[in-house]
Design a protein that fits this description.
The structure is a homodimer. The first copy, chain A, is of the alpha+beta class. The first copy, chain A, has a single domain (6-112), classed as Orthogonal Bundle (Arc Repressor Mutant, subunit A). Chain A is 67% helix and 12% strand. The first copy, chain A, has 6 helices and 3 strands, in the order ααβααββαα. In chain A, strands 1-3-2 form a 3-stranded antiparallel sheet. In chain A, a hairpin with a 2-residue loop joins strand 2 (62-67) and strand 3 (70-75). The termini of chain A are far apart. The structure holds a DNA duplex.
Amino acid sequence: MVNNHSYDLDAVFHALSDPTRRAMVRQLAEHERTVSDLASPYDMSLAAASKHIRVLERAKLIERTVRGRTHICKLNPKGLSRVHKWLSYYERFWTQKLDALETLLAEEDNKKK
Amino acid sequence: MVNNHSYDLDAVFHALSDPTRRAMVRQLAEHERTVSDLASPYDMSLAAASKHIRVLERAKLIERTVRGRTHICKLNPKGLSRVHKWLSYYERFWTQKLDALETLLAEEDNKKK
DNA sequence: ATTATATTCAACCACATGGTTAACAATCAC
DNA sequence: GTGATTGTTAACCATGTGGTTGAATATAAT
């Protein structure tokens, strides 16, 4: 039965399901960028990029500051931390399951030395 | 552009963008369940639930074992670890700690490719 | 052999998504 | 003011998504 703020996660995960949007997030992790900055690497219209940015904004993954005619976008850490929180529930589970694999990798590493 | 294995993440994030599917993942974190088990909490046809399960499967978030006429689904830890790996790049935004396990997982993932 | 159970598949539908182009709005530079 | 720059909005299109129902498949039970 779905949890309390699942509607948020819907938007967050949906936003992140597109490679263009993930790449934009990555760019914003370096520093703030304008809409055209974000759009420039992609072979698509500015309107299309603008839509992507709006999806990220609606998911609260980024924030926008309008200064003059330029819109400056920056990452909103809280957006991604929502994913982290969601994931943390499962983290124990899969870290446990991968324990054996870690050991294997460690052994392999020791052999190299 | 994006990165190499983005297509994986497309599927993973898309799969997780639906509340029904996230709830299914949550159920599977407890223990394995059959398709009807997974479907039963929801007010939708079995066929619809079956589709959801297939989306999770294609994203490699779960695995299926057919035994007789029942299909037993279990969580695939590696699926979620992909999300964690992706997320770990951004973790510095809300925490300073760097988990050693992340590094191990990253290495494991690199070796596979 | 018949019937019930577990699940998928195929066809269909309404709506969402990601892209386009063209028009609009606001700001800056001259 | 005129014109260029930055960005959004609107209308449109092809494809994808999540749901339905009904038929098909495979196995289990009697």
